[in-house]
Specification:
The chain has 479 residues and is an all-alpha fold. It has helices at residues 12-22, 47-54, 61-76, 91-110, 118-132, 140-163, 167-193, 210-229, 235-253, 256-265, 268-273, 278-298, 301-307, 310-316, 322-335, 346-353, 374-399, 406-423, 432-466; strands at residues 2-3, 6-7, 84-85, 89-90. The chain has two domains: 59-113, no CATH class; 118-451, no CATH class. The protein has 19 helices and four strands.
Length: 479
Amino acid sequence: MIGQGKVRVFPRPLKKIIRERTQEFGHERFGFPSPRRFQGPPRTSHIGPYRQFIGEEAQSGLGKLAFAFLWLLVFAIPWEDAVTISGFGTSARLIGIAAMGLGAFAIVETGRVRRPAPAHIIMALFVLMAAASYMWSLFPEGTLVQVFSYVQLLTMVWLIWELAPRPRGQIRLMQAYILGTIVSAVDTVYLYLSHQESVYQRYAGAKLDANDLGLIMALSIPISYYLLIRTSGRQSWIYRLHLVLAGTTVLLTASRGATLASIVALMIVPLTHARLTSRQRFVVFLTVFLLVCGALAFVPSTSWDRLSTVPNEFARGTFTGRTVIWKAGWEIFRDHPLLGIGANAFRLVVSRILAEPIRLDQTVLPSAPPAHNTFLSVLVEQGVIGFALFCALLVILALSLKQMPSFPQTLWIVCLGVWVVGASSLTWEMRKATWFFFGLLIAQSGCMAPRLRTRGYAATLSEARLGPLHTPRSSESTV
């Protein structure tokens, strides 16, 4: 390691690995500058961050198989209702069980478990609170079903943390979600062309509710834009096609909440446009042009008419009866403020207040209205304590964005904004898409924190021994 008066900090293969890992997010404009060479061997206590930064241990065959099933699970989320198994549930549930089993074996094989992030702890406490609500639930059977679903969702988040600890795996999961939304979008366009309405003058593929499908698509827009910017060649046309299909699908669903969420999603364009290269600006312009053409060619006038009622609904409307449900939910909360009425009990209890008929022997409660607001649903069902945990989770997710470079940080700020707007008119606290995006955000912030600490240590040590580093302007993160 020492020869001819020179000191090598690491052997050459290790430095090559570091350089490759820093470029996994694409061009350095959107990732991390390459690590600076500094003199003086680090102490043993400082090697840990480098090992975590490098991620030098490759997955085993079992780990790769578990990740493949996790990829399939994410791919199936946007169209999970399209294929159902009688007496069992959706196809996504079957894939999820297989992914959980293989993931557990893969973790046992490695003999190590990653230290959970603070957001994981808050998630686990939220699930425990939902499970504890069984003791005072006004609908214990429904609470038990929802707790089981929460445990599965929490396991999916943990699998993302364990099986996709590095950017390459996280990008693949993003791609899986985008490909899944293309399936739903193509089915939606097919239903429109064949004049098969899901509800009156509205179209939604994959047997999904039109409002849910609209938000699923809205969440995919900033992700697809992110992948488009960092991709070149033929693969970039997949994301252009997806953005056109996603925008057209949102308009075909005629979901006003999803349309507002999509407007928030499109804010990622002006937030990053000023720092794009000329080629990237042309790519964005071409994609927007194709989106406008697709909207004009496929979206019927009935969708535009429904979307045009948004200002009137804000001024003096009921948001299709949602305000009536919200008032009833608030009355329930006032009677059970601390602990709530139990997970999954909102629909049953509010149907009594609204004097709507309901039969408890039904596995599905079609006559019982959902909360149509994620925050109100959590507040009513789990009280102030559960609501505080849910809000704490959102705050921790927002604070974790500080550990990211500016372009991924902008991506996730927009994604959180899209989710908040969309979830304000939908009951999405137990949707797979919600937990997938939260889990992916935790995984990305977790893998970037060691990188920034490693980079900071290198700069600090170099400055102490050699003076401040003069970083070339071209190597700085510009987005």
